[in-house]
C-alpha cells in the first residue's frame, strides 16, 4: 500500500503537501476540498429531473457558514434544528424561505424564535403540534411522520420504525387533523427521516412510498395545501475505502425515486416540491482530518501510535465504533514497514481510540496522519472536553488553502466567564 492511495488518486490536496498545511495551520486540522464539495452537491441535485425536486442539506453534518455559502451557490436549501443552526444558516446567506426547521422536543421559546424568523417548521409529536398551534394559530406547519421503516449504521441513528422517539405514527392521523383544525393550521408539508447511512436504496425507496401513501390518507381539504414532501436524508458513503466498499447506487436510487415521484405527481396533480435531506453525503468525503503523531509505545503486546486527534476532535469512532480510513504522511520520506497498530488520541480515557488494530506503515513521532471522510459529523460534533481547543478548518481551492475557521484559543475557553472571575 502506498502511504496515501485515496487522496493521491483524487488529487485531494491539489498538490499542497499535507506537511506544509500542518506547518501553516497547525494540527489537528480539518481540510476541505471545495471542488469535491461542489461535486457532491451537483450529484445530489441531479439525482432526478422530476419537477419540484430539490436538495435540503442537513446542517447538523457540518455547519461551517463558509461551506454553507458554497452549498447555497450550488442551489441547495438547508434545514435547522436549533436556534444556533438557524442563526448560522441566516449568517451564511440563506433566506427564511430557504430554511426548514426540523427539530424535536422543541422548547416554546425556540419555536417562537423560528416563527419570528418566518421559517417553516416541522413538528414531530401531537403535543408539539398542539404547542405550535397555540404559539402560531392560523399558521403554516409541516408534520413529521414515522413511516415504520428505519435504517442506519448504528441503533443510535435509526430514526424511524419501532423504538425511536421520532415522528408521528400514521395511525394518529385523526388526531393530527383534529389539532390542525382546532388551531386553524395549514398543513403545507409532511416529512420523515428514516435514519443515517444506508448503502442500499431499497429501504429508503420503500419509505418514500409509505410517505406518499400517508399523503394520500390526508383528507382532501387538508391534502390540497401540501406543497412540500420531504423524504429525509441518510445517503451513505463508503468508509471502508481500502476494501473497495461499493458506493451507494445513486443511479438506481435516482431512477427509481424519479419513477415513484413522477407517477404520484401525475396521479395527484401535485405541483409542489419533493425534498431529500442529506447531510453526510454532501460533506463527508470532501474532508480529510490531519493529525500529528506525538508518541509511540508498546503496552502489553499492543503497539500504540499516539496522536493529537482525541475524541474531542472526532467523536464518531468512540461514540459509534465508526470506521475511518487512515492515511500516513511521513515526516521523512523513505520505505516504511507495515505493522499492526492502534491509533489513539490525547484524551485521558482508555476509550480514546481513533483506529483499532490497523495495519499501516509504522508511524513515527512527527509523522502526519490523515483521517478520511471526516467532513460530516466531524467538526460539528467536536467539543472542548479536557479544555482542548476545537481545531482550525481550512478550505482548498485551486491549489491554495485558506482558513475558514480559526483554531480556538484560551480566550475562547474563558469568554463564558467574563465578569465572573
Ligand atoms: N434530516 C434529519 C431530520 C436528521 O435528523 C438527519 C440526521 C438528517 C436529515 C441527515 O442525515 P444524513 O444524510 O447525514 O445521514 N452523528 C451521526 C449521524 C447522526 C444523524 C442525525 N440526523 C454520525 O456521525 O454518523
Identify the notable features of this structure and list them briefly:
14 helices; alpha/beta; Lyase, Ornithine Decarboxylase, Chain A, domain 1; globular; eight-stranded parallel β-barrel; 2 domains; binds ligand LLP; 421 residues
Set out the fold topology.
Blueprint lengths: L4 H6 L7 H8 L3 E5 H12 L7 E5 L7 H9 L3 E4 L2 H9 L7 E4 L5 H9 L3 E4 L2 H10 L4 E5 L28 H10 L3 E6 L10 H16 L2 H4 L4 E3 L19 H19 L4 E4 L3 H4 L3 E13 L2 E6 L8 H5 L5 E4 L8 E7 L8 E9 L6 E5 L19 E6 L2 E6 L4 H5 L7
Parallel strand pairs: 1-16, 2-3, 2-9, 3-4, 4-5, 5-6, 6-7, 7-8, 8-9, 11-13
Antiparallel strand pairs: 1-10, 10-11, 10-15, 12-15, 13-14, 16-17
Helix pairs in contact: 7-8, 9-11
The structure holds ligand LLP.
Ligand LLP binds next to helix 12 and helix 13.
Question: How would you portray this structure in words?
Answer:
The chain is of the alpha/beta class and 421 residues long. The protein has 2 domains: 160 residues, Lyase, Ornithine Decarboxylase, Chain A, domain 1; 251 residues, TIM Barrel (Alpha-Beta Barrel). 30% of the residues lie in helices and 23% in strands. The strands form 2 sheets. Strands 1, 10, 11, 12, 13, 14, 15, 16 and 17 form a 9-stranded mixed beta sheet that branches. The chain is globular. The termini are far apart. The mean pLDDT is 97.
